[in-house]
């Protein structure tokens, strides 16, 4: 059983809460996880707190040990830090749901091309920024007729 954790959940970011849960589930100490991820322990500990900005390299190293994609950890680390614009809706929730669904599926044998990723996003209802500008322009033109 690991030593009593000194980091309190109330002080943690969503990433920190994930790290604490992982430590408890795996019966690991913060020192052992830092060693396994090849991250200095103070950096790993600091990544747990609200308002911190872990580096992409720290998130990549940690993701290899925890078994989650580094972008998922990035999303947790920066959750709530970027102001949401009204037209975005719940993009964080959508991204999280995409990751959860992807985890239940077989991984592709090779990286999908940008064109395939774009097609998938379009099928989900995303549009290009210039498309929405064209739609707005077309609506204004139709209203003026």
Biggest sheet layout: none
Instruction: Calculate the terminal CA-CA distance, rounded to whole Å.
Output: 74 Å
Q: How many beta-strand segments?
A: 0
- Helical element count? 8
Unreliable spans are none
| Coarse structural class | mainly alpha
Mean pLDDT comes to: 79
Spatial extent as radius of gyration: 20 Å
Helix content: 55-70%
Shape: elongated
How large is the share of residues in beta strands? under 5%
| Helix and strand sequence | HHHHHHHH
CATH architecture of the largest domain: Orthogonal Bundle
How many structural domains are formed by the residues? Answer: 2
CATH level-four homologous superfamily name of the largest domain: lambda repressor-like DNA-binding domains
What is the CATH third-level topology name of the largest domain?
Answer: 434 Repressor (Amino-terminal Domain)
The CATH first-level class of the largest domain comes to: Mainly Alpha
Q: What do these coordinates show?
A:
59% of the residues lie in helices and 0% in strands. It has eight helices and no strands. The chain has helices spanning 14-26, 30-37, 41-47, 56-66, 70-77, 91-103, 114-123, 129-144. The longest helix has 16 residues, at 129-144. The chain is elongated and about 50 Å long.
